[in-house]
Design brief:
The longest helix has 20 residues. This protein has 2 domains: about 90 residues, Immunoglobulin-like (Sandwich), CATH 2.60.40; about 170 residues, Distorted Sandwich (Glucose Permease (Domain IIA)). The chain is about 15% helix and about 40% strand. It has 4 helices and 20 strands. The protein is an alpha+beta fold. The protein starts with a helix and ends in a 5-residue tail after the last helix. The radius of gyration is 22 Å and the shape is globular. The strands form 4 sheets. Strands 9, 12, 13, 14, 15, 16, 17, 18, 19 and 20 form a 10-stranded antiparallel sheet that branches. The chain has a 4-stranded antiparallel sheet with strand order 4-3-6-7, with no helix packed on it. A 3-stranded antiparallel sheet has the order 1-2-5, with no helix packed on it.
Length: about 270
């Protein structure tokens, strides 16, 4: 009886140690376009595929799954010199086709003289999205940037502009009257403030930590400056129709570094 009791005790000690070392939980779905928050032990090191990611002092980390990813995702945990790999299958999605007509032809097929401008602007956006700060706002709940707005464009849809196939849409479009006030979806720091980008017009990017950023596009007015810290719900600007646009609306986007994610996955909008 004593031997049996000792075996049970040893088993539970082993189970406790193993569980403590490799504790791992996820918030989010392993589906194309989805944003996922992981939670592990604070001492752990984490890799997503081969990319080392930050872990907060509480054990939180973030990552995302690209629109067209078809292969498995590999998560590697390391603690006390020991590594464990977890392989996750990625579920595919079906995307809509969206046709938009009436755009100025130069916005659909830009003239060569603006190529350098577009290249320069893309570099500014890419630099802002590549920031890997230790902010940890990414793990908090997002709010919608507009009240009672109608969704007119969804993430992932293949776009046909003036009858010509173009890049997919990587955000959510909200139709609203010009001048409607826009709220910050999450606490963060403004890392890019541009009033007249070729494609997106008035554009803001906020850093929320660990490579997670949000974008607000086609804005008429912008009320924040680069480097400014904002709180969730702060008014950051107004809806416009700047850049490549056929009417007043707000296009919002969510990124994990260079991976474009579906904002609907954090805004509780059903289409994902």
């Amino acid at each position: 009886m004593l031997k049996l009791s000792l075996k049970i005790i040893v088993f539970y000690i082993f189970l406790h140690i193993f569980t403590k070392v490799y504790a791992l939980d996820f918030t989010g779905k392993f589906v194309q376009g989805h944003f996922i928050i992981g939670k592990t032990n604070k001492e752990s090191k984490v890799w997503i595929d081969k990319k080392s990611v930050r872990v907060t002092p509480e054990g939180y980390f973030a990552f995302g799954i690209g629109r067209d990813r078809k292969y498995d995702l590999v998560i590697t945990l390391e603690q006390n010199g020991e590594k464990k790999k977890i392989v996750k299958k990625i579920q595919k999605r079906k995307y809509q086709i969206q046709r938009i007509d009436g755009l100025p032809e130069k916005k659909v097929t830009p003239p060569k003289e603006v190529y350098e401008r577009i290249k320069r602007e893309n570099k500014i956006i890419s630099d802002a999205r590549s920031i890997n700060s230790n902010l940890n706002f990414f793990k908090n709940k997002f709010i919608k940037p507009l009240d009672n707005a109608i969704v007119t464009g969804v993430y992932g849809s293949q776009r046909i502009l003036n009858g010509k196939p173009r890049w997919p849409h990587y955000g959510i479009d909200f139709a609203a009257k010009e001048g409607t006030k826009i709220k910050a979806m999450l606490d963060g720091t403004a890392t890019m403030v541009e009033t007249d980008l070729f494609y997106t017009g008035g554009t803001l990017i906020f850093d929320h930590g660990h490579g997670v950023s949000t974008l607000y596009m086609h804005m008429k007015k912008i009320y924040v400056k680069k480097g400014q810290k904002v709180k969730q719900g702060d008014i950051i600007g107004t809806v416009g129709s700047t850049g490549r646009s056929t009417g007043a609306h707000l296009d919002v986007r969510l990124n994990w570094f260079g991976t474009r994610l579906d904002p609907a996955t954090v805004l509780n909008i059903k289409d994902n």
